[in-house]
């Protein structure tokens, strides 16, 4: 059986696409992925999603979006899309457990994963002092000392942003030269609240009672190990868009983000649409992802109608 539309990936983009597609009677099938709910499942309080004046927990927001989509008939299957065949329609989606689905159109909303340091203590303290999103979590560190790890534009931008809240921000970078563009470096260097620890490798995140207390580092030249006291650690070492499973069948940027046609969510493959962080290296916010999810569902609806595949156009 061929579906009208399959949505691959759940996060604000996928869930919103599911709500809109379901309300348009497209009876969407949603492939949830190995980490249903996406990056927001790793955060605690979300204070910048409109409509929640007292904040909402990231997992609760995702659960509510899923329920809202189910209420209109969206169907969810657990599983990770391992590969796709986009060479002809219906498109085929292959799940890791061997299941195969077919659809006339696809919405790809597999997100991007923040890269992590993968050092001891980090995973345990995510959402409890370790964060990968300054915009989301900076406010929680008002008048506190923070460390930002990374030497790229994101690290400079996040460190500079975090000085609005923190009493002091220390950038820890693994080399003695930064990767960031000159303008971003200069902005950070001219900020009196930013301190620098260059050419040092993070070894372990220290914490107790669900709170970060320090970052253990090794100075690369001297091999000396030091503990930097901190109440927050922002890991800003880049994101990885989750596009490997497409195996080059959809156009991406050099670092793997899906490319959409200007003003729409269409990819270079007719019938394949992209929304959320998998196609957005710039904003990466829950609300922007949700907005593009809405756009993708509306684009799909119009595209299916143009193909005369919709049985009951709304
Ligand atoms: P990025 O340019 O890839 O930089 C990642 C940084 O993290 C690098 O300094 C890297 O060190 C470091 N790093 C990577 N893995 C690490 C590890 N395991 N341990 C310690 N450090 C590690 O990523 P990004 O800063 O997120 O930027 C991504 C793209 O977005 C870039 O093209 C950037 O220009 C763009 N961007 C632009 C703006 C802006 O213009 N406003 C803002 C943000 C991002 P090495 O340098 O040693 O490799």
Automatic annotation (TrEMBL):
Binds 1 FAD per subunit. Gene3D superfamilies: FAD/NAD(P)-binding domain. One of its GO terms (molecular function) is thioredoxin-disulfide reductase (NADPH) activity. The keyword Disulfide bond applies. Residues 4-293 form the FAD/NAD(P)-binding domain. It catalyses: [thioredoxin]-dithiol + NADP(+) = [thioredoxin]-disulfide + NADPH + H(+). Its cofactor is FAD. Its EC number is 1.8.1.9. SUPFAM superfamilies: FAD/NAD(P)-binding domain. Belongs to the class-II pyridine nucleotide-disulfide oxidoreductase family. This is Thioredoxin reductase. The lineage of its organism: Bacteria, Bacillati, Bacillota, Clostridia, Eubacteriales.
